[in-house]
Amino acid sequence: MEPRLIAIFMIALSFPHFVQSLVRHYNFSVVLKNETKLCSTKSFVTVNGKFPGPTIYAREDDTLIVKVTNHVKHEVTIHWHGIKQLQTCWFDGPAYVTQCPIKTGQSFVYNFTITGQRGTLLWHAHITWLRATVHGAIVILPKRRVPYPFPKPNKEKIIILGEWWKSDVEAVVNQATNSGLPPNISDAHTINGYPGPAPGCISKGYTLHVESGKTYLLRIINAALNDELFFKIADHKLTVVEADASYLKPFETDTIFLSPGQTTNVLLTANKNFGKYLIATTPFMDAPIGFDNVSSTATLHYKGTPPYTKTILTNIPPLNATPITKTFTDSLRSINSNTYPTKVSSTIDHSLLFAITVGLNPCDKCTNGNKFVSAINNITFLMPHISLLQAHYYNIKGIFTDDFPANPPMVFDYTGTNQPDNLHTENGTRVYRLNFNSSVEIVLQGTAMIAPENHPFHLHGYNFFVVGQGLGNFDPEKDPLGFNLVDPVERNTLSVPNNGWVAIRFRADNPGVWFLHCHLEVHTTWGLKMAFIVDNGRGFNESILPPPKDFPKC
């Protein structure tokens, strides 16, 4: 550690009440790990040999310095999902968008400050499908002496939901890419790395230990690659207080719903004297396509419960429980207090309509002569050979064009039965350019082309407000009249409903290159992604900082 940082650290220890922010150091070693799950052993990529990976703890306004060293054959990057990265776009993490990957035997130091954020987020690999096992929690505590806007819990627990393949995940995606067909689905879902009991295999499950009368803050993360998930605890209510590191008006429910990349904090009161209660995470899918329909279970175990006590079971939601997802989503409202105000733009500089489609493009080497692709406004995004941010910062020509369409090239009945006959899309590395501090509204419109389904979308570098959503086609005359501009939920990842639409708003006050993509990894692989370039504003505080000296080379 540098002498200057040692001095700062010693001052913080001596006068903790006077220090509002710290510099926190972490070392991430990307290594292989052998482990047996579902009665099958495989070697897989991890950080520090842990699955899930290590938790990063910080406070609002702390600076994080994370050295990532790559000891495996795969190139790797780490994305700090939900961190706004104000002026530090170089450290956002998506491969070939903001950085070149870290090669085998090399290191890269991520250095960024957590400004104006507190709550639960996650970190994960952001290249190919490595995030299946390379992921972990980010816990951002409020500033010192700043309380939660809800009753203080007695303890806090982290719950990470994921997916598990018996096969090597990189082999799964490579096989799908070569065949042009959808990839093989996962073999199980996991809770904190444990799949729980499975057919034909006695498999250990996770146990959440609690004491009667105490309240627990559960920080729940969906780190799955391709599945939206329900979470439920038998005979217990959950009070939802936060989503994607943004405080909410609290509400009570027995089932929560998370898309990949989303986080939800809930209060759990252990109001039983003793006992064991089933914890279940189950998939949601309201479209006729293949998916992992296996539930994962864990146990809520009260201290003092006698041995061999029977576990209390629960009814799990149906796989296609759209009413439950809608009820949960409609209940999310920003806290909108004096301390945490909701600032939604009332005027719009850029009004965008992004139609989400699945298509088929010719592929000579593929099984059927075609390959599945996905697109926004009929553009299937192609990744460049150097990072978009490098090309933008150094004005390198020929890497991208800034002519991404603001609207679909052809207007049709997006969610109707009469879909376009031409299922081909246009390939391109095209971005949409925004002036600094401009206000942006995006309507993400689902379509019925080939395979209508939910699409969880994640925007890097920003939070956004979900001002409206509905089923069918968005009506630009009628639907905005019902927009919630008072207390809409603030998120970084949202779920576009099957054959429906969602409207979001944000202010482009963070210069850089920012990725927008579906957080179902299968669709990202197919090209369901694009990027915004937000130009510098005026002066140092509104401009991208220079790249770090150890920036990886492509």
From TrEMBL:
Gene3D superfamilies according to UniProt: Cupredoxins - blue copper proteins (2.60.40.420)
A family per Pfam: Cu-oxidase_2
This protein's UniProt keywords: Apoplast, Copper, Glycoprotein, Lignin degradation, Metal-binding, Oxidoreductase, Repeat, Secreted, Signal
Gene Ontology molecular function, alphabetical: copper ion binding; hydroquinone:oxygen oxidoreductase activity
Cellular localization per UniProt: Secreted, Extracellular space, Apoplast
SUPFAM superfamilies attached to this UniProt entry: Cupredoxins (SSF49503)
Broad class of enzyme this protein falls into: oxidoreductase
EC number: 1.10.3.2
Residues spanning the signal sequence: 1-21
Any single GO CC term annotated in Swiss-Prot or TrEMBL for this entry: apoplast
Cofactor binding, per record: Binds 4 Cu cations per monomer.
Domain spans labelled Plastocyanin-like: 36-143, 156-304, 403-537
Catalysed reaction equations from the record: 4 hydroquinone + O2 = 4 benzosemiquinone + 2 H2O
GO biological process assignments: lignin catabolic process
Cofactor(s) this protein cannot do without: Cu cation
Keyword Oxidoreductase annotated: yes
Homology family: Belongs to the multicopper oxidase family.
Function: Lignin degradation and detoxification of lignin-derived products.
UniProt cross-references to NCBIfam families, sorted A to Z: laccase
Protein name: Laccase
Organism name: Vicia faba
Source organism phylogeny: Eukaryota, Viridiplantae, Streptophyta, Embryophyta, Tracheophyta
